């Protein structure tokens, strides 16, 4: 796989984003690859309706016009069905899906329209078709860019090594950020504390992790919310959520 798919060569590439439509197009330069993942698919799996295979690549990047504007870009792109990576372009082109918008792009675009201040600012996105020299000619590509925010991801083990006052303060900031997010439409699908970006100097927090986003839970904020994000420790029993008086805070 690594010999066939390697996106390191994209570093230095300039990518222009033309959405949201109310904003002028913005060009970003890819700096360094942070991660890449793949959803592989056999022909049998595809025929069974399991979806087309795709790659997900995350880069650090900066604005072409403002190099000091540091940000992140995620690229989603259709890739060939397993066993056809080395097939002729016209064969791979037969697999093309011309339009597919991944959930993260939908979520961040919606949160931006809702003026949600609890998430990193969306800087732009675009969707286009792959060219004749790319992996699936005529297949889709999604690009989405969001701003870098100050702070560090909350580490679960470090959090629980800190004193109670620090944990209390962080939970208070989290509650405010989550309440801002909860008035909007989307939330992260997974809730590890590492998706919380906390600035210990300014006491500001942003919620990230929308790659596997889901629609916002309609349940009101409660002590259970802290537990689901790893910021409280309930006892190991089936009805742990009924009474938080014996939890570790």
Summarize, please:
The protein is of the alpha+beta class. The chain is built from six helices and eleven strands. Helices cover 21% and strands 27% of the residues.
Describe this protein's structure:
The protein is built from six helices and eleven strands. With 249 residues, the chain is an alpha+beta fold. It folds into two domains: 8-147, Phosphorylase Kinase, domain 1, CATH 3.30.200; 152-229. The strands form three sheets. The chain has a six-stranded antiparallel sheet with strand order 1-2-3-4-6-5, covered by helices on one side. A three-stranded antiparallel sheet has the order 7-9-10, covered by helices on one side. A two-stranded antiparallel sheet has the order 8-11. Strand 1 and strand 2 (26-39) form a beta hairpin.
What is the count of structural domains?
2
The parts where pLDDT drops under 50 for at least 5 residues are none
The CATH architecture of the largest domain: 2-Layer Sandwich
How far apart the termini lie comes to: 45 Å
Query: Structural class per helix/strand content?
Result: alpha+beta
User: What's the rounded overall pLDDT mean?
Assistant: 95
Listing every helix as H and every strand as E from the N terminus to the C terminus, the arrangement reads EEHEEHHEEEHHEEEEH
Number of helices: 6
How many strands appear in the DSSP assignment? Answer: 11
Shape field: globular
Radius of gyration: 21 Å
Strand content: 25-35%
């Amino acid at each position: 796989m690594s010999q066939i798919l390697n996106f390191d060569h994209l570093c230095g590439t300039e990518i222009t984003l033309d959405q949201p439509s109310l904003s002028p197009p913005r060009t970003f330069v890819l700096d360094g690859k942070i991660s890449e993942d793949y959803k592989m698919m056999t022909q049998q799996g595809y025929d069974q309706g399991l979806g087309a295979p795709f790659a997900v690549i995350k880069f650090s990047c900066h604005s072409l016009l403002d190099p000091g504007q540091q940000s992140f870009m995620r690229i989603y792109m259709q890739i060939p069905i397993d066993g056809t990576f080395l097939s002729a372009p016209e064969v791979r082109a037969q697999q093309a899906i011309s339009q597919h918008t991944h959930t993260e792009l939908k979520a961040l675009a919606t949160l931006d329209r809702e003026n949600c201040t609890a998430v990193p600012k969306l800087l732009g996105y675009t969707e286009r078709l792959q060219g004749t020299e790319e992996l699936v000619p005529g297949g889709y590509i999604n690009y989405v860019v969001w701003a870098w925010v100050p702070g560090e991801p909350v580490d679960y083990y470090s959090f629980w090594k800190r004193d109670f006052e620090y944990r209390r303060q962080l939970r208070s900031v989290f509650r405010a950020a989550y309440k801002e997010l909860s008035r909007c439409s989307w939330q992260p699908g997974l809730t590890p504390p590492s998706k919380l970006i906390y600035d210990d100097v300014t006491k500001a927090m942003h919620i990230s992790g929308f790659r596997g986003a889901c629609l916002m839970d309609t349940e009101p904020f409660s002590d259970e919310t802290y537990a689901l994000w790893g910021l409280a420790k309930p006892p190991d029993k089936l009805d742990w959520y009924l009474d938080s008086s014996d939890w570790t805070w």
